[in-house]
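== Polypeptide entry ==
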Amino acid sequence: MKDSDKLDSFRKILHKVVMVITWIGGFSLILLVLVIFINVIGRYVFRSPLPGAVEVSQLLLVVTVFFAITYTEVRKQHVTFDEVVNRFPNRLRAVILGIMYFFVALYAFTLSWQEGLLAISYCVPRIRVTDVLKIPIAPVMFIISIGALLWGVELLVNSFSPFSSSEKEDIIKQEGIELKNKN
C-alpha cells in the first residue's frame, strides 16, 4: 500500500469521525436556536425570560463552533485570501500551503492541549459551574479540546497533501481556484 493510499484511508476515517461530531454540533445549533426563541417569547410575551438562557446559549455556542470547525476545514470553506499564492506555480503553491497548514495545525494542537489542561483544572480541586443553573463548565472545555484536536489532525493531513487528487475537484468547485499545470 502506497503512502498516498494510507493517507487517503486515514483521511476517510477522520472524515467519518468529523461527520459524527458535525451532526452533534448541528444538533446543538438547533438547541441554541430553540433556547433563544423560547427566551425571546418568554421575555416579550409572558414577561418572564427563560432562567439561565444566556449561559446555556454560551455553552451551546461553544459546542456548535468547535464541533463544526473541522467540517469547515474538510470542505475547504474557511475564509482565505490567496490572490498572491494563486499566481504561483502548482508546486510552489503546494509547498506554501503545506507549510501554512502545518503551522495552523501546531496552533490547533496547542489550543487543544492548553484547553484540556484548563478543563482538568476546572474539575480539580473543585468542579466549577455556571452561575445560575450550576452546569459544570469542564465538559464544554473538553469539547473545545476535542474539536481543536480534530481540526489539528485535519490540518496536519492537509499539510502533507494540500492538493491531493481526491480534493482537486472539491477545491475547484468550492473555491473557484484554477489549478494550472505550471510545474
